[in-house]
Amino acid sequence: MDTLSRREEQVLLAVWELQDNAYLLAIKEYLSQIISKDWSVGIIHKPLLKLEKKGFIASSIGEATAKRGGRRKKLYKVTSLGIDALKELKAEQDTIWKNFLSREVLKEVK
Fold first, then answer.
1. Cα–Cα distance for residue pair 71/14, rounded to 1 Å
2. Mean pLDDT for each consecutive 10-residue tract of the chain (110 residues)?
3. What is the pTM of this model?
4. Which CATH architecture has domain 6-109?
């Protein structure tokens, strides 16, 4: 399975969290709030394109709204392949962190 970069992981998790409200600006606002760093639209757009190309997300065009001046939003959804990629990444990270922490504890004992 394709591996995820840290940024792709963060964007994919944001899409999952936002569910039916996962569009570019909502993802930007969510990540900026969670990570306490102002994310630019470009920093989010590139991982979205990569994630869609890998099949980890799918996009659709939402309805036009008066609030957006009649413009439509591009909405994103995590696919089953994307969920599998997140689970695989989490399992790998858990193993790496477990190994790191066990060695750190041993070092402190010596």
1. 23
2. 87 96 94 89 93 96 73 93 95 87 64
3. 0.83
4. Orthogonal Bundle (1.10)
